[in-house]
Task: structure prediction
Amino acid sequence: MKKYLKLLFVSMCLIVIIAILSIVYDLIVHRSITFRYIFSANFFAGIFVMAAGIVIMFLPSAIFFKDNKSMDRFNYVEHSFDNREKRQQIARIILWLGLYIVVFTGLIQLLLSFVI
Result:
């Protein structure tokens, strides 16, 4: 539970940072402050993070964890299973982060559409 609350905080921080960067981009390009790119930039960032999580999920473990230890067959299989679990756990965390970014951006946009 603590891990998901930490991901919630990280996703909210990323949403704010991406919003600030999109306002700065709009200010530089269009020379005015509008909130035109905030939500689309956050949606694209969330989709990009989820796509990265999916790619990490399906890549082989040898890319992420390199060991030069000499092992017999049984230790190698056990070690490869452990590496696969670590990689999949990292990929799941990244997928949840992307999902949180997309969902909370949508909820913020929905809330602002009712308020404004």
In short: The CA atoms of residues 107 and 113 lie 10 Å apart. The radius of gyration is 19 Å.
